[in-house]
Design brief:
Mean pLDDT: 90
Order of helices and strands: EEHEHHEHEHEHEHHEHEHH
Oligomer: single chain
Number of helices: 11
Helix content: 40-55%
Strand order of the largest sheet: 2-3-4-5-6-7-8-9
Number of domains: 1
Radius of gyration: 19 Å
Shape: globular
CATH class: Alpha Beta
Largest sheet: 8 strands, parallel, barrel
CATH superfamily: Divalent-metal-dependent TIM barrel enzymes
CATH topology: TIM Barrel
CATH architecture: Alpha-Beta Barrel
Structural class: alpha/beta
Low-confidence stretches: 1-12, 22-29
Length: 311
């Protein structure tokens, strides 16, 4: 995968960079904390140190950190599990050097879905999750994010079995996280057992303490409207923001169909106290099409900042 330079920013992006993020609004006598974050995993195959340089130069003071595969591996899960104290110390040092705070640890899964039919796979996953939760607690994360699994029809798993297995595993994970003062979230992503709002709600309501990390882009791919997606807001503990359009999972900030002004207004009306993380995903085809993910991230951050400032 093409690596993105961390030292070059085009003139086109200049006015978007280092724009302070408005992190709170006041109305009806209350302080509502809506914080805008960046993601370490939005800029290609970068190390933790390289990625936070980009995030900080864009102007973010808060980040989600990747601990998955491909571009999402600024933290390697096996290293974090084997040495949670050492890896947490390293992460805190890097963040302090760049004036950044951390919000959510973006895990997804550990190579196999959490509801895999094989009990030995699930047992190994639980062990990995417990180790990652220990690391996350020591590092100071607010939440950890998994994905809810899918139906393994090729292995003879029925939709009901897939759902029941996810519920069982997520109950264990949410309890582990809660014991460490961490929020456990799942992303209702396309292709999962929770891609439809009704299924996501059913899953969250079946698992005490579980929340959603909500990214409208996934439901936009299903042809759902804002009205249909907004029913998930009461269950959301974290948000991802990327522009999208039907048939195009990622679109430039000014070209897609997601109305971020409407989303922010809804969050304010709901008294949402949490994070909205700008989370584009580097894609070779988009790079070949001329995308600069630093520019797109900076532009979407500007859109969100303006929506927050609108009152």
């Amino acid at each position: 995968m093409r690596r993105l330079s961390v030292s070059f920013f085009s003139k086109l992006c200049y006015n978007l960079l280092a724009t302070p993020t408005r992190e709170w609004t006041i109305f009806t006598g209350e302080i509502i904390m809506i914080r805008i974050a960046g993601a370490t995993f939005s800029f290609g195959d970068l190390t933790l140190e390289e990625s936070v340089e980009v995030v900080r130069e864009i102007g973010f003071t808060l980040v989600d950190v990747g601990a998955g595969w491909n571009n999402y591996h600024q933290i390697l899960p096996q290293e974090a599990v084997e040495d949670p104290e050492g890896q947490a110390k390293r992460l805190r040092r890097v963040m302090e050097e760049h004036g950044l705070e951390i919000s959510e640890l973006f895990i997804m899964h550990f190579g196999k879905p959490i509801n895999h039919p094989d009990p030995e796979v699930r047992q190994w996953t639980r062990g990995m999750f417990e180790g990652m939760a220990t690391f996350a607690q020591k590092a100071g994360f607010e939440s950890v994010m998994m994905i809810p699994g899918h139906v393994h029809d090729d292995l003879g798993q029925t939709p009901q079995q897939a759902f029941d297995t996810s519920v069982k595993e997520l109950r264990t994970m949410a309890a582990m996280a809660g014991e460490k003062d961490l929020q456990c979230n799942i992303e209702p992503c396309v292709g999962s057992i929770a891609e439809q709002p009704a299924d996501a709600i059913k899953l969250v309501e079946a698992v005490p303490g579980l929340g959603l990390t909500l990214d409208y882009a996934h439901q936009v791919q299903l042809g759902l409207s804002h009205d249909e997606i907004e029913v998930l807001h009461p269950y959301a503990r974290h948000f991802h923001a990327k522009q999208s359009a039907p048939g195009a999972f990622q679109a430039r900030p000014d070209e897609g169909t997601i109305d971020f002004g409407r989303i922010i207004r809804k969050l304010k009306a709901d008294n949402y106290n949490g994070v909205v993380c700008v989370e584009f995903v580097t894609n070779p085809d988009l790079l070949d099409a001329g995308w600069d993910f630093k520019c797109e991230t900076a532009r979407l951050k500007q859109i969100l900042d303006e929506a927050l400032a609108a009152g």
